[in-house]
Amino acid sequence: MGSQVTLAQVAQRAGVSLATASRVVNGSERMVGARFRERVLAAAAELGYTANAFAQAVARGRSDVVGLVVPDIQDPYFSVIAAAAMEVVEPSGEMMLGTTLRRQEQELRYVTTMRARRARALIMVGSRTTDNAHTRRLAEAIAEFTASGGRVVAVGQDKLGADTVLPQNRASAKDLALALVERGHKTFGVLAGPDSLLTARDRVEGFTDGLSERGKRPNVTVHSDFTRDGGYQAMSELLDRRSKPGCVFAVNDVMAIGAMAAVRERGLTVPDDVAVAGFDDIPTLRDVAPSLTTVRLPLADMGRMAASMAMADQPGEQRRVIRVKGEAILRDSTKL
Amino acid sequence: MGSQVTLAQVAQRAGVSLATASRVVNGSERMVGARFRERVLAAAAELGYTANAFAQAVARGRSDVVGLVVPDIQDPYFSVIAAAAMEVVEPSGEMMLGTTLRRQEQELRYVTTMRARRARALIMVGSRTTDNAHTRRLAEAIAEFTASGGRVVAVGQDKLGADTVLPQNRASAKDLALALVERGHKTFGVLAGPDSLLTARDRVEGFTDGLSERGKRPNVTVHSDFTRDGGYQAMSELLDRRSKPGCVFAVNDVMAIGAMAAVRERGLTVPDDVAVAGFDDIPTLRDVAPSLTTVRLPLADMGRMAASMAMADQPGEQRRVIRVKGEAILRDSTKL
DNA sequence: TTGTAGGCGTTATCAA
DNA sequence: TTGATAACGCCTACAA
């Protein structure tokens, strides 16, 4: 840093004590005379003073930084949640962003970083994994964070011992399956995403549950990344097989979008040659054609809820888990 | 905040001085005996110590926070740049995110906030406007930030007196126009975005320049927001007119995507009924059909360049302005 | 209402 | 190598 104007300089210039200067620049309001107040304000303006937020945080023993950790800010799912969370954090705090690039170590690293930053709260969005050792370490780190007075909110599975916004992946995927069978689909494929991601697993299981309730089961399941390219690749692989299923469920929308690209690329058509369904209802869907059948999750609400819990002043007597249900929306991509 | 373990506690437990503890936990390495080092490390681990980054920043007189200010993190243009910037900031610093929701006051507010945070650098991405008063105020705030030792990098127009990553909007839009005429398009419309946004203006002007070099000019120009919905609305308006142009240029891709939706909605087809071109080449384009003609900007590179300049240690003798040229890419949406 | 002084958690200087 | 001790910039009883 360079030469910063300090409060002491402002005080000196205004001819008042440090304490008085502090009070007007920030203090508990109206306990300082109008004359002095003005002098201080003038001095601050002339000098171009800006309070040092670090020093304030040290002196006060707290900060108004909220940490947000997401796997990938380019993925619409996360950017919607982030934007919504931002909305509620912004008026009274600053947001520190961390992206893990979908790597677990990063997740852990950010918890530590945010703790070092004495962030007042931490919002961790993204799926938990089957790596129990990692989940345990993460939960421990989070417990320490909480113990030191911070608030933590998870968006995803309830595995961290923190307040959680919990999408009902399983139940909603099941609803989707039922609706699809209802619509007359007979054979199914699943683009299952990574086997290690709980979100992906839950959705696959829910979907399978729904099918089996109607005496069916997926004819084919392909695993891949939880991304657009993952969907593309998985669908390509699936289409190379002998018999294509009539309807393919991708465990999230970006994968479904990639899958549709794969279909198009082979000169096939959705839904005539193969129907496609996704999950999340990201805003991007407005512009995919044919319109994509999916499960609508109130993404923005989820972001706002998470942020609200994070910003809550209450020490939070009890851990809160907010279940969020999704709604199956049938659109053209699964028309028969 | 709650009860945090302090370095003093660690020192006491390890039976060493504060200074020694500080040295091992962070210090300039290997100036402390192995015995003591181990004792301190052990104590720190047992107590679950994490350094207080605020206190460190105060004591050191500098921080490693980099502020990133974007209009809207949901817009692919910005999220790509943000993600790329993140990539280079991450290894050695933390990123504080600000979204202005496309409001100027917010922009100004963030500069102040970042200054309060004693951010080591500030990256401001987004278009400048025709509001000269605001631009001047912003430039002043930025000058103060710089004067106090911070680094500022703008991505957009070179109006802030800061290091700048400057896309060649005008020249590239002109190239696009020439290419379109070359391809045989005769009549043109322009979805011009907001009249107050310099980026939008430059692109409109460049496009118009290109046309006039071929003895043509836009038959119709419609202004709207710089967003998907803005594009949708503007195109709707345009299609309501008597005679549609054969080719419509939207000043950015998200607008073009909205415009294509408007076309589709009226039962018309791109490019048969009306050709559409955009600008930016956001990743999302991979999945729009028909594929969209646009100007490719190296978005990720721009983000990385901005971050690199921001992270540079050098006091930066000279202000740097990096010009980035775009490349016109003709795709199906303007096929004749 | 105003000022004095001690403290917040670290780093850094200077002896030892 | 180690340890006192003075900063760092600000807040906040407590006293005046």
From TrEMBL, chains A, B:
Keywords: DNA-binding, Transcription, Transcription regulation
Molecular-function GO terms, alphabetical: DNA-binding transcription factor activity; transcription cis-regulatory region binding
Pfam families from the UniProt entry: LacI (PF00356), Peripla_BP_3 (PF13377)
Entry annotated with the keyword DNA-binding: yes
SMART domains: HTH_LACI (SM00354)
Stretch forming the signal peptide: none
Xref: InterPro entries: HTH_LacI, LacI/GalR-like_sensor, Lambda_DNA-bd_dom_sf, Peripla_BP_I
Domain HTH lacI-type: 5-60
CDD domains: HTH_LacI, PBP1_LacI_sugar_binding-like
Record keyword DNA-binding present: yes
Name under which the protein is recorded: Transcriptional regulator, LacI family
